[in-house]
């Protein structure tokens, strides 16, 4: 069966995730080690804790706003990055030392963060001290994993925490930037925060396109994964569809898996199907659709293909009329051509049939069957 994503009742009615997928909740790390170190190893460990997830069912259909020959909708809203670039500086004051000491107490507390503590954290986010910023961001990130903090916005929007974290996404110090990306990913678990994250998407996309260190790529994907659990800002991700497919080809194993998870979240939105089909496909797609492929990777590959092929069937997609021109790769290289191209469609069906019939993993067999059924003449 499927587990409901526990965000709010009206959202859980529209979204479900499978037993292997749930919104990524990152576990708190031991702050005693971080408080004496500026290393990013603790932060990297934080990014690898907990389960990540992707949706496998379609949400409520939203109005298409991508352009195509058949349908001319409104262009997606321009990226408004004002307020997200750069980082804040403030002069050190006599309050810094007591606030610094107070941070230690907050960091070791496994409880809901009260409003007065949240205000202290926001003040600390204006510091010039990179080590202090990193510690503060990790404290916020850990606090966001506490259930009581996930369902309230006491230290998120109301006290200005969310916007401060967003501004630190472009901090010059890599460890602070990584801590900000991680904190934003955990804050994204709150539904109210989700509504305020539109300006963060272009920044995260820019970070990803800049081809940073692998740990930054991976944590950026994790944060995008949490943001794309809901469909609100899916269209803002159109600028990285080519790159996400490319990461499936070139990334390390964890990067491949997380790139696929983000893509799967996007396929749950019918409005995104044309853009996903228009983007340049992974060159190794057919090769990955094989019994010998790692089970975790294969499960994501067949889920992605199942969602796309079902979308083509349900929406009656015409590759000439419906693929948005602004997102379209050269015709032979599109994802649509990688699935339905001459001499390719039969191979996809044949491989999916083999997986449906022979693979030991039941979830893979189920998704492979969906591909076969969706691609029937």
TrEMBL record:
Task: List compositional bias (Basic residues) regions by residue number.
Answer: 60-75
Signal peptide as annotated in the record: none
Region spans: Disordered: 57-98
Membrane topology qualifier: Single-pass membrane protein
Its localization reads: Membrane; Mitochondrion membrane
Record-linked Gene3D superfamilies: Leucine-rich Repeat Variant
Could you name the Gene Ontology cellular component terms for this entry?
mitochondrial membrane
User: Which Pfam families does this UniProt record tie to the protein?
Assistant: Arm_2
Question: Organism's domain of life?
Answer: Eukaryota
Q: Which keywords are on file for this protein?
A: Membrane, Mitochondrion, Signal-anchor, Transmembrane, Transmembrane helix
Which InterPro entries does this entry report, sorted A to Z?
ARM-like, ARM-rpt_dom, ARM-type_fold, Armadillo, Armcx_regulator
Q: Does the keyword Membrane apply?
A: yes
**Boundaries of each Armadillo repeat-containing domain copy?**
118-314
What the record says about family reads: Belongs to the eutherian X-chromosome-specific Armcx family.
| The protein, known as | Arm_2 domain-containing protein
């Amino acid at each position: 069966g499927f587990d409901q994503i526990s965000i709010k009742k009206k959202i859980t009615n529209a979204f479900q995730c499978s037993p292997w997928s749930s919104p990524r909740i990152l576990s708190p790390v031991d702050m005693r080690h971080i408080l004496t170190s500026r290393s990013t190893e603790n932060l990297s460990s934080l990014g690898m804790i907990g389960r990540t997830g992707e949706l496998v069912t379609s949400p409520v259909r939203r109005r298409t706003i991508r352009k195509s020959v058949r349908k001319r909708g409104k262009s997606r809203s321009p990226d408004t990055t004002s307020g997200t670039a750069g980082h804040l500086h403030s002069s050190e004051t006599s309050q810094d030392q007591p606030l610094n000491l107070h941070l230690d107490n907050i960091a070791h507390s496994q409880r809901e963060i009260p409003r007065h503590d949240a205000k202290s954290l926001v003040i600390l986010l204006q510091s010039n001290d990179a080590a202090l910023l990193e510690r503060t961001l990790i404290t916020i990130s850990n606090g966001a994993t506490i259930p009581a903090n996930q369902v309230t916005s006491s230290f998120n929007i109301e006290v200005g925490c969310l916007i401060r974290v967003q501004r630190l996404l472009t901090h010059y110090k890599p460890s602070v930037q990584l801590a900000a990306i991680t904190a934003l990913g955990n804050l994204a678990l709150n539904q109210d925060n989700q509504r305020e994250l539109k300006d963060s998407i272009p920044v995260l996309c820019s970070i990803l396109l800049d081809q940073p260190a692998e740990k930054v790529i991976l944590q950026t994907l994790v944060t995008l994964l949490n943001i794309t659990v809901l469909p609100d800002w899916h269209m803002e991700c159109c600028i990285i569809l080519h790159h996400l497919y490319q990461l499936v080809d070139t990334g390390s194993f964890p990067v491949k898996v997380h790139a696929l998870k983000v893509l799967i979240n996007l396929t749950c939105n019918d409005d995104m199907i044309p853009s996903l089909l228009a983007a340049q496909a992974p060159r190794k797609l057919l090769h990955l659709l094989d019994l010998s492929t790692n089970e975790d990777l294969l499960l994501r590959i067949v889920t992605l293909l199942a969602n796309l092929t079902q979308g083509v069937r349900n929406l009656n997609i015409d590759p000439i009329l419906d693929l948005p021109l602004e997102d379209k790769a050269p015709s032979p290289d599109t994802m649509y051509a990688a699935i339905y191209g001459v001499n390719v469609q039969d191979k996809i069906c044949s491989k999916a049939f083999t997986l449906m019939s022979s693979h030991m993993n039941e979830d893979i067999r189920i998704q492979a069957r969906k591909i076969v059924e969706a691609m029937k003449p």
